[in-house]
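Repro:
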Amino acid sequence: MNTVVQLNAEYGIENRVEFVEGSGGLTMIQVNTPKAKALISIHAGQVLSYQPDGSDDMLFLSNKAYYQNGKAIKGGAPICWPWFGPDPEGKGPGHGFVRNRPWNVIDTEIIDDNTVKITLGLTNSTDTHEIWPHQFELSQEIIIGDSLNLTLSTHNIGAESFTITQGFHTYFRVGDITQTSVLGLQDCNYIDKVAGGAEKNQIGPVTATAEVDRIYRTISNTLIIDDIALDRGIQIISQGSHSAVIWNPWEKISKEMADLEDTDYLRFICVETTNADKDAVTVIPGQTHRLVANYQIM
């Protein structure tokens, strides 16, 4: 029995959850509810599409994204874990090792007539120990309904504490980046990575007129993407997060990235729910830390 058939037999739910073969032969989960539909890649444990009923897709997904083991998928809501940015030890890939390998399907469930929950998971192995020498259970609950709710739970099953940085590196689809702003970060201090790590203070909404790569600290738990071109707002409510990252590569870097089209920078903004840089989280043995992001069209 092939993987797709096996998963459909075990976890498929009629008219709600179906396992299909997607791009690159990767197994995908298609979710349909009266409120929204979604597409989730088991590779990377990554939501690729979330489209509320009657609305354009909330998420951006590159037409040139890679779909293969060992590669990250450009778009959707990638998970950065157990580090955000470069590996502090220099052993593993940027943004961690969970966004470029297969996850396990733990459960699928109908919560109510309009809502479905998918649970995916990863645990430590000989392979992960070569990169990061800790014992862990990682799970992600993905709730699809009138909003998209992501909960990443890090459980320390070892005898020693470990420290992580992490994030939902979410790509939001916008009509025109030049007519887009992010609200809710006014007066926050941030690290400007484009300016060599200079510390600055945000005045007014965040807008992009060139490359943007910023780590905001001491943030509100509610941010809003104001997308004038698509005449919509996207509300982001977070829990367990102490920082937020705003990223847009702009023209030069977009052209240099093989998995982005030259003008893709005009069509997305990353507003990332994170514990990045100095906001690392220490998880003691037996403890679980939960990072939560809820996304909703306004």
